[in-house]
Amino acid sequence: MSSPFEPFTPANGGRRAQEWDWREELYQAQDPWAQPQPQQQYQYQQPQYQQAEYQQPQYQYQQPVYEAPQQQYQAAYTPPEPRERKNRYKPALFGLVTALVLVTGWQAFRVETIIQNNNEIADTVNASKDRVEKLEKQQTSANFDSQGIAEDVLPSVFRVRAGEFTGTAFAVSEANGRTSLFTNFHVVEEIFGDGERQVALERGNTRITATIVKVDQEKDLALLRANREIKALGIAAGDVKSGQQVLVAGAPLGLEDSVTTGVISAFRNTEDGPTIQFDAPINPGNSGGPVVNSSREVVGIATAKARDAEGIGLAIPIEVACEALEACGNG
Question: GO molecular-function annotation terms (predicted)?
Answer without folding.
Answer: serine-type endopeptidase activity
